[in-house]
Design brief:
- By secondary structure, this protein is α/β, with parallel strands linked by helices.
- It has helices at residues 53-56, 72-77, 142-145, 170-180, 202-205, 207-218, and strands spanning 2-5, 8-12, 19-20, 23-25, 40-42, 65-68, 83-86, 91-94, 97-103, 120-125, 129-132, 151-155, 184-188, 193-194, 223-224.
- The strands form 3 sheets. A 7-stranded mixed β-sheet has the order 8-9-10-11-12-13-15. A 5-stranded mixed β-sheet has the order 1-2-5-6-7. Strands 3-4-14 form a 3-stranded antiparallel β-sheet, with no helix packed on it.
- Helix 4 links the parallel strand 12 (151-155) and strand 13 (184-188).
- Helix 4 crosses helix 6 (207-218).
Length: 238
Amino acid sequence: MLLEQDGLRLLTDPTLRPRMGHLTRRVDPVDPSHSEGLDAVLISHVHQDHLDLPSLWRLPSELPIVVPAGAARLARRARFENIRELAVGESTAIGPLSIEAVPAAHPGRRPPLGTRAEAVGYTIAGANRTYFAGDTDLFDEMAAVGSELDLALVPVAGWGPKIGSGHLNPETGAEALRLLRPRIAVPIHWGTFFPIYRRRHRLLVDPPHEFARHAATTAPEVDVRVLEPGESTEIDRR
């Protein structure tokens, strides 16, 4: 996701290349302009589909990068110079924005035996307050994360045919909205890449719409906006 907030541009968990291992991009390439004029990059955890070194090598090395505590070595491998490591509860300032690491229920080690760094989500607070979940399952502190949220970016799927523990699916993602209570929610982490089962097309396009249907019952007060890859939306200020 590219967030433009308070005049700043933040890129989250960027995967910018057309292929990553057995995954191939099923949508248009990322517009190069999305990587221009950035003010920071946020990395939620160290799994290869969220911290992709070849994608990060495309970005300016002087750009601030915010990573979970323990991930600085990987950020240095990505050639970044301004590295902000955050443990849960810690925060850093990017211009007028305050970025705080919050819990996530997701494995933290980079497979197979690589860097261990606790997975986190982030709240981005300025004129509005945004929650970027990264990868997570439901967790006990989720309701506390949801204080006065304007926008929640909620993962609802993955790149494989099954979603294991440590992930939200369309139904549990809707349950997360009941806890978070944002004004607006955008489902993320779906539909961008073809895994090896590329013929099972519905698994690539159905999850965000299933999420919206569940949310209409579980959290009807939340404005759910399904964005196709490449689309954008505007969030008004409170």
